Amino acid sequence: MPKIIYLDRLTKEKKQEKVYGNFFIDLLYEDTFSSRVISFFILPLAARFSFFSKLYGFFKKSSMSRYKIIPFIKKFDVDTSEFLEPVSHFCSFNDFFIRRLKPEARPIVQEENRAILPADARYLVFPDVREFPHFFIKGKKFSLKELLKNEELVDKYKAGSMVIARLCPVDYHRFHFPCKATPGQPRLINGALFSVNPLALKSNIKILSENKRVITMLATLRFGNLLYLEIGATHVGSIHQTFQVDKTYEKGDEKGYFSFGGSCLILLFEPNRIHFDQDLIKSSAQNQEVRGLMGQSLGSSIH
Fold first, then answer.
1. Spatial separation of the C-alpha atoms in residues 202 and 133, rounded to whole Å
2. Is the pLDDT of residue 241 over 50?
3. Can you spell out the DSSP letters for 164-194?
4. Stated pTM of the model
5. Quick check: 56 pLDDT over 60?
6. Strands 161-167 and 121-126, how do they pair?
7. What are the structural domain ranges in the chain?
8. For 20, how many CA atoms within 13 A lie in the half-sphere containing its CB?
9. CA angle (120 as vertex; 193, 92 as ends), nearest 5
10. Mind telling me the catalytic residues?
């Protein structure tokens, strides 16, 4: 597998990502003849039939899986001092995966005109969503129409701004509101569960518009109506919403969480609603993901 390099926003250092399950990512998504042959037969079964993810998820929720927690923490250098509960309280690997953090572990930027990163993830931002298709290769274009499956929303956001947040299995997997907002009714679009690893996305960017996803419109005072999408991925058949419809939430309040696996968030802002932070814009223009933490600044409102 080619090295996945990201920029750590805290240290300003470039780091190599430690990939969970890299053998299978290579096997199914690498651009080699053998991988193409194997993926032709195996990938449609594994990604398009939720049975496989449900079976794997069942194991991760069983008490047998708790013995994988400590080796995982050691291998991926997970900071246990941030955990709200001690590791000994986790009865399964999934309990560890959906862990809560101490509030002080993720301080929230307080300025009212500033939106925050909604999750611990690797970020790309696009001030104009129309700039996005050039980022990936092999001529497979990203389609807002396929992603949203709603012509009215496509027309509203086709010239808007977009955030892609890629969560890895090592990350804290709860996601939060990026600003003070009142959420509407979430809409489920069922789909496949392909990996959102960069190797997989560069092989087929249409994964983002083929995978299972949930779309929620957030009504906000400073950022207009923004769309919040949770996208499932390999072994992530479950997207859990913990918010109440039509209740107003403060910036940083929890919106929901993913069960085990890698996953992805997309935020879509209406045109001329947000000015992303310059470091995010600069790195994204260079096709460089930035690893940021929930609560850090995303950008400021334009109005």
1. 11
2. yes
3. EEEE-TTS--EEE-SSSBEE---EEE--B--
4. 0.85
5. no
6. antiparallel
7. 111-301
8. 21
9. 65
10. 120, 176, 263
